[in-house]
Automatic annotation (TrEMBL):
Keywords: Endonuclease, Hydrolase, Nuclease. Residues 10-63 form the HNH nuclease domain. InterPro entries: HNH, HNH_nuc, NA-targeting_endonuclease. It comes from the Bacteria. GO terms for molecular function: endonuclease activity; nucleic acid binding; zinc ion binding. Pfam families: HNH. It comes from Butyrivibrio proteoclasticus. Gene3D superfamilies: 1.10.30.50. This is HNH endonuclease.
């Protein structure tokens, strides 16, 4: 049980590091205990728990986004360029037709 909890905390820390500990959408400082993890491509639209698809949001921004599809560069103003590119790359991989 401790291993799973430790793994989840490490994952949350890596996700928060994408924005330097602020909400990816509004820039509000996030506390580790209160951060919500958003799926860039919502599970409803085929998104997975791939780390490239996970971003830190405050509760309010996560509620506002809901399960809408957004453009990373437009919606996540506090997400670094590198992570925007990774998120967009992930989305493109999901949208490619399987041959």
């Amino acid at each position: 049980m401790r291993g799973i909890k430790n793994h989840k905390l490490q994952l949350k820390d890596r996700i928060m590091a994408k924005t330097g500990g602020v909400c990816a959408a509004c820039g509000k400082h996030l506390e580790r205990q209160k951060v919500t993890i958003d799926h860039y491509v919502p599970k409803y639209n085929g998104g997975t728990d791939d780390e490239r698809n996970l971003l830190p949001l405050c509760r309010n921004c996560n509620r506002q986004k809901s399960s809408r599809m957004v453009v990373a560069e437009d919606y996540y103003r506090f997400l670094g360029k590198r992570y925007c590119e990774m998120a967009s790359e992930y989305r493109n991989e999901l949208e490619r037709p399987v041959s």
